[in-house]
Amino acid sequence: MDIKTLYDANINNITVAKNAYDTLYSAFGQHIENWQHDVVDRLGHSEWTGTAAGHANTRIQFLGNELQAAKQELGLISKALTDAAEGIAAAQSHLISALDDAKKNKMTVAPDGGITWDKDPNSPNYAGDKAEATAKEIGKRITAALTEADHTDQTINARLGHLATNATNGTGLDSATAKADQTATDALNQVPAAGTDPNSVKAWWNGLTDAQQQHMIQTEHDKVGALDGIPATARHQANLINLQRGKERIQRQLDALGPEPVHNLATYNGQPIKNPDYDDWKQKHDDLEDKMHGIETIEDRLNTPVDADHPPAFLLGFDTKGKGHAIVAVNNPDTADNVSTYVPGTGARLGGSLHSDIERSDLMVASANQATGNSKTTSSITWVGYAAPQSIVPDAAFDIFAKAAENDLHSFETGLRATHEGKPSNNTILGHSYGTTTVGYTLRDKGLPVDNVVLIASPGVGVEHARDLGVDPSHVFAAQGDIDSIKFAPPEDADNFASNLINNAGGSFGFIDEPDHHVAFGRDPSVPQFGAQIIPTSPGTDHSGYWENGSASLIAMGKAIAGKPIS
Question: Domains along the chain?
Fold first, then answer.
């Protein structure tokens, strides 16, 4: 698609063709009604019987089915032409808007899209000192409009080509074929159900015109924003709407709580009698305030000016259910060379430590950039897409949270593969603390389409050896700081606590030659027996210190994410 073709496109001609097919559809429907009345009904009342009558009635019924199928196929052509007109009209509007802005800014757009302007400050046609930046922006809009039109052209061409083939070879007269075609067309207007295979979701999305995609984003934003297999930029647009709606909803709920009730109702024998209404109010208030804090954290990061330390961010997931969920990508994972998903652990939620979790993604992108000399693009995604344990005791002592997250994490990673453009990216799954348990269980039970696994401060990942994760052990990395208390995480099975403690202590003090080094959910991944590559840590690294600027662990994480040797 070129500028002239799109600019000169006569949308009215498509509409006229669509109207002609509507006329044909109506006439054909009337023909079928006449056929039913003048032939089928008359023969049915003729009292004609016998073998010949049986054959004739069978053939007539078969012909009637063919006519109904043909009518259904004609209706699908009309729908395709409607979608074509809307899609091309939208792209044409975007192109004209960009060309108009070029003209307003005293710029000339060549047929090939090149933009020129007068650079002489003394000229009456001088385009200004910001002309270059303006030209780049307009150029991007022109390219986007042409891409939009081309996508619509290819999508509609495929649909019409399929229907034309059916008409040519007669398959369109088959009722099963017509029904399948109708189902496929109807599906274009329905967002796939949650849990649909991301590759199928991507195929559905690609079958929509850009105008239809934008319609889905605006009207079905809650579904589109949460659906794996939808490209990152589209999910981002949908989730910006979800974020605003969520913020408004949380504020309404806060307002509805009313003022803070009194803490105590009275005193009895010198002791305060607590007001149960206050406790209920405070629990709801604190939960809502926490979510609002998370929303504001996301807004702050999305609105941060892009610079070397803060690449563009994309909101890939958002909701306020339960403790709330958020998925924030630093850089676009669909176009990045390296893609890492960071799964935080205990306490992860929409509020809480979301700010520091996103900040870690920024740091890991910077570290990976340093490892590649900025020759590759890296995206790091903070994935708070599961209900993480909210307390060390008792929540984090159980693996139910990790098990419950398996399907969602598997779907998300599969979606990253489905939507990535061009050459497959080098993908890493990285967990911290209980997040490593979530990662490990998913790798063990579902498998993940990743190239590297990074386990930071792990209480165990459900397996005894790196090879049991389904990834090349040489691409499994683990770290544990010298003063990280995670090494003392007791086993989930309380019956084994004493033996586990004796075993580990015996290994530490040399009483046992080959301790099993079990922690809460299996063998400690940072010991040699597990078989992972050990990520170095700086002296004094505690449970949250792995992302300190300049630390050995952050440098090594960047290398692992970039697919580089860590030493």
Answer: 3-187 (1.20.1260), 295-488+522-561 (3.40.50.1820)
